[in-house]
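Re-run with default settings, no changes from the original entry. Doing this only to confirm the output is reproducible before filing.
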Amino acid sequence: MNSDFVEIPSLSPMPDIFSCKRILAIQAHYDDIDIAIGGLVAQLVKNGAEILYVTVTDDLAGVIDLTLSKEVAAARLADEAEKAAEILGVMGIYYLNYPDAGDWTVYQARRDLITVVRQFQPDGIISLDPWLNNEAHADHYKSGFAAVEAAILADVLGVEGNDLQIPAEFVSDQKREIEAVALFNSNQANTFVDIDQVLETKLAAVSQYVSQFTDESMAGMLKALPMRSKYFAGLGHAADKLSKDVTYSEPIKVLSTGTLHAAR
């Protein structure tokens, strides 16, 4: 380890994701957000936020039952995702349908997401942290990079989107600035969210994703998630970023769009 290395902290104030009331939550796969930060989503909804999910891939690679046709599998995946979204209070899900673990680029997804941002007009964006160490799944880091680029480029009129049209009920005529970008699955968390009151809601949502988990693996995950949340709460306590009264927590990295684009 180089003892001369000094990490330069950001000079920009950290935004508050809970100040956002219209949030675009971008994930690679249909269960990524709910497994990682379903508690945060439930708390944001309780705080009055409208949340639209964007799922980048079609998720078909992870379906356990290989006897299902693609059409039947896709219908089951969508049904599970919509049931989970209803439990959490998410307003809807928009699918980009790139092939799961397939050949697509950050640039392609970025153009789609820029268009979605321009139509949905969020003041907050949630996505996977594309800079997570040791992330081997390209779907994850490609989705994250596309999301953070969309966050900083959607207002740059010289950057092209495309001609996709999200459902009319998700389109907003009110122009909003993106105030906060919250990244999950990050190893540089600066915010620890209290999920004590919504843990059971999160677990109920996660339990809907039966097409990609066996009974045994689902039971294991539903047991592991509270344990992980207790561990994260301990990290939050140790860093003085979370009340000692909190038992369960989810960590996120919250940044401003300026921090994502050269400003420190």
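The mean pLDDT is 95. Residues 70 and 252 are 34 Å apart (CA to CA).
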